[in-house]
């Protein structure tokens, strides 16, 4: 007993009493969706968290429904509970024995009747406190009590329903009342990391247009056009990540500094960087000689000289296709006497073919070249800037084709073969009646390949020189540090051990000036403010 023992008593429930003693509000970690322990019933799938209909288990004894676990494994290839690797072959089909009753501990519902799982040997119903195991070899589910009494203690290692042999390692625990951590939903990997397979309806809900319920026809058309033209932002491509060197650095900058200054949509840039020239610009500027190719046909060989130093892109396309054996086993599909013979179409119809970069490329007209004489090599096209792989060789002058077709070479050998081609009979569509085939192409001189090799050698030499200079600089700095040249000299111990007081000598004139400055005092002002009494 004591005085004032009921002084703190109040006529109402305090917050602490309401939260701890008398029910009411509980902390988020004790109950609800954020509780530290949330028990999953045995009859529920560990992935979908709903009662299963086609039960399968993993090697740890976690139960899943087939319709839920199969798409998950195929997409993520991990265990939804543990997050470790899991494959379809590791899943085991299990068989729960059911007994329908009107009341009781239900595991699933079917047509208003409650389904209860039980042990097929002792016929005891499974509850949340039953120790349940499964036999790996058969997939049948029993109570641990039945397996212990009838198998383990008796030493009879045959399955209780099918007499199939099994071992102790084949016993998989599905539920152990002493270790319920495996049923804690809060610890599931797919719950913690929000890993799930989205259905079509969920994909639609995630789209921004799902929230637009009422929308006009004009707005819908605008959104449709935006979907067609919209592209997700991607990282810098390999071309954008190339660093300029003395070979591909342009005389102008990338313009990133000006763009970042005038626009908030671009990344901040404070240093001017030279723009990087395209590879073909660097290569073509170094080509200064002609190329030579031989076409081996069914009527003989034709040697061609290519104007690689002036008509660079067209010659590069032709040499690249020859190097890829693109023209091998193709035919001359069109021949007009006293005019020209055309080839280069793999389909043989005159409508196929493509350039080495895919599609077509621009014309390259040069005023110094004209369709004069026999044996002019030019590109066939279907209009301006539609050059692909087809080419033709003229039988005589046809200057009306100038500035319409790109001339990129001439015949320097095999004019007799060209004469035999002109003599071949054709049908009413100018197709040769005797098939003329390009059996193979042989490249004698390829200036573009030589330029690529030279550039590679020069860049390798520059890289080796830069590495040697950097190593020399590092070695010189390391040597100076080892010799102690860059280290300060210690004069004494203690505070100020690196200060050299002998270097503070002052000349006499400087010392006299300092003394004179100290002695000199500030003179009083000649005039001062007074009142007007003496006025």
Automatic annotation (TrEMBL):
It holds the Pfam family Rtf2. One of its GO terms (molecular function) is peptidyl-prolyl cis-trans isomerase activity. SUPFAM superfamilies: Cyclophilin-like, RING/U-box. Gene3D superfamilies: Cyclophilin-like, Zinc/RING finger domain, C3HC4 (zinc finger). One of its GO terms (biological process) is protein polyubiquitination. Transmembrane segments: none annotated. It comes from the Eukaryota. Residues 297-443 form the PPIase cyclophilin-type domain. Keywords: Isomerase. Coiled coil: none annotated. One of its GO terms (cellular component) is catalytic step 2 spliceosome. InterPro entries: Cyclophilin-like_dom_sf (IPR029000), Cyclophilin-type_PPIase_dom (IPR002130), Cyclophilin_A-like (IPR044666), Ubox_domain (IPR003613), Znf_RING/FYVE/PHD (IPR013083). Belongs to the cyclophilin-type PPIase family. PPIL2 subfamily. This is Peptidyl-prolyl cis-trans isomerase-like 2. It comes from Hirondellea gigas.
């Amino acid at each position: 007993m004591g005085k004032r023992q009921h002084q703190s008593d109040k006529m109402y429930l305090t917050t602490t009493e309401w939260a701890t003693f008398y029910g009411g509000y509980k902390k988020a970690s004790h109950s609800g969706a954020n509780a530290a322990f949330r028990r999953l019933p045995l009859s529920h799938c560990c992935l979908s968290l709903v009662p299963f209909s086609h039960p399968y288990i993993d090697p740890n004894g976690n139960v899943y429904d087939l319709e839920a676990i199969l798409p998950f494994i195929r997409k993520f290839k991990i265990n939804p509970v543990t997050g470790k690797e899991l494959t379809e072959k590791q899943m085991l089909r299990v068989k729960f024995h059911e007994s329908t009753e009107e009341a009781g501990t239900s595991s699933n519902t079917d047509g208003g009747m409650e389904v209860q799982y039980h042990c097929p040997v002792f016929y005891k119903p499974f509850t949340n406190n039953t120790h349940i195991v499964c036999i790996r070899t058969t997939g049948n589910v029993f109570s641990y009590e039945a397996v212990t009494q009838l198998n383990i203690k008796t030493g009879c290692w045959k399955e209780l329903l099918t007499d199939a042999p099994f071992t102790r390692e084949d016993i998989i625990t599905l539920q152990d009342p002493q270790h319920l951590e495996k049923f804690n939903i809060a610890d599931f990997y797919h719950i913690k990391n929000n890993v799930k397979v989205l259905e079509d309806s969920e994909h639609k809900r995630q789209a921004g247009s799902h929230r637009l319920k009422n929308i006009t026809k004009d707005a819908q058309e605008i959104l449709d056009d935006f979907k067609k033209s919209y592209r997700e932002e991607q990282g810098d491509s390999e071309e954008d990540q190339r660093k300029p060197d003395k070979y591909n650095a342009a005389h102008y900058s990338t313009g990133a500094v000006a763009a970042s200054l005038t626009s908030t949509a671009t990344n901040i840039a404070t240093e001017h960087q030279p723009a990087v020239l395209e590879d073909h610009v660097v290569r073509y500027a170094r080509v200064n000689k002609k190329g030579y190719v031989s076409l081996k046909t069914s009527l003989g060989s034709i040697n061609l000289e290519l104007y690689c130093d002036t008509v660079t892109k067209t010659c590069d396309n032709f040499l690249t296709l020859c190097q890829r054996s693109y023209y091998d086993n193709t035919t001359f599909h069109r021949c007009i006497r006293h005019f020209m013979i055309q080839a280069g179409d793999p389909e043989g119809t005159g409508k196929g073919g493509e350039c080495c970069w895919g599609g077509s490329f621009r014309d390259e007209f040069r005023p110094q070249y004209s369709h004069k004489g026999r044996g002019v090599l030019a590109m066939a096209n279907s209009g301006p800037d539609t050059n692909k792989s087809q080419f033709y060789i003229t039988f005589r002058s046809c200057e009306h084709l100038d500035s319409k077709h790109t001339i990129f070479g001439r015949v320097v050998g095999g004019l007799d073969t060209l004469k035999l081609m002109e003599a071949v009979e054709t049908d009413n569509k100018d197709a040769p009646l005797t098939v003329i085939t390009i059996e193979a192409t042989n490249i004698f001189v390829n200036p573009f390949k030589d330029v690529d090799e030279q550039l590679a050698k020069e860049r390798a030499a520059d890289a080796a020189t830069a590495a040697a200079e950097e190593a020399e600089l590092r070695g010189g700095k390391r040597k100076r540090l080892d010799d102690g040249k860059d280290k300060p000299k210690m004069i004494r111990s203690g505070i100020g051990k690196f200060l050299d007081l002998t270097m503070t000598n002052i000349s006499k004139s400087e010392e006299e000036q300092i003394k004179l400055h100290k002695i000199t005092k500030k003179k009083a002002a000649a005039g001062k403010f007074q009142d007007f009494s003496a006025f």
